[in-house]
Specification:
The chain is α/β, with parallel strands linked by helices. It is 50% helix and 10% strand. Strands 2-3-1-4-5 form a five-stranded parallel β-sheet, covered by helices on one side.
Length: 214
């Protein structure tokens, strides 16, 4: 089965994905936290670092569609190498294709290439969205030890990204389980275990839940 964790930068999706995979493994499930290798993403950022002095200037110096295309190639790599073999495993995804679509909207790129490839990706059995307010996420990013905050993690950008996620959820009729800033990890684990057993999903943390089909 596939579990996805989505949200704006600083929402805690990476930590959630890693913790969830660890907790599920304690129930003798073959669970793993997965994400793309980001080979193409790294190529773009290395180019920007060399040419423009900052790896995170791709939005200002490269067409947004070019960067989104690089991200989509990284996700196709994950689909081919990992997601297509998920039948006997629990793959907890740190981000999913929904997040790429949100980034496309955020950067002003066309979303059609994302939609074209989205049809090839399996729908997550459980999809979590960390609905963390941009000021809270921004404060977390500032407080982290490394790497230092960059322009795309500014409060203005986080607010724009949060709006982009609203557009994605509306456009795709994506109804994930909504989590707040404080996560009840036991409730999250119960949600995934229930889905693995084919039982109705309880809402994690007593908050809204949505369709498994996104």
């Amino acid at each position: 089965m596939i579990v996805s964790c989505s949200g704006i930068d600083g929402s805690g999706k990476t930590e959630l994905a890693r913790r969830l995979a660890t907790e599920l493994a304690r129930f003798d499930l073959d669970a793993e936290c997965v994400r793309p290798r980001y080979v193409c993403n790294d190529i773009v950022k290395r180019f920007c670092a060399t040419r423009f002095g900052d790896p995170n200037t791709h939005v200002a110096n490269i067409r947004p569609g070019t960067y989104i295309a690089a991200l989509l190639l990284d996700w196709l790599d994950l689909l081919h190498e990992t997601l297509d073999g998920h039948a006997t495993r629990v793959l907890v995804c740190d981000r999913y294709v929904f997040d790429v679509m949100a980034q496309a909207i955020h950067y002003g790129a066309e979303v059609e290439p994302v939609l074209d490839l989205l049809r090839f990706f399996p729908s997550p059995n459980v999809s979590f969205f960390l609905d963390v307010a941009p000021p809270v996420a921004h404060a977390r990013l500032i407080a982290r030890r490394e790497p230092p905050i960059h322009a795309l993690e500014s409060l203005d950008h986080l607010e724009t990204l949060a709006e982009a996620y609203l557009s994605v959820r509306a456009h795709l009729a994506w109804r994930p389980v909504i989590l707040g800033a404080e996560i009840d990890m036991q409730a999250v684990v119960r949600s995934v275990l229930a889905a693995a057993q084919g039982s109705p999903e309880p809402a994690a943390s007593g908050q809204g839940q949505g369709d498994r089909r996104c």
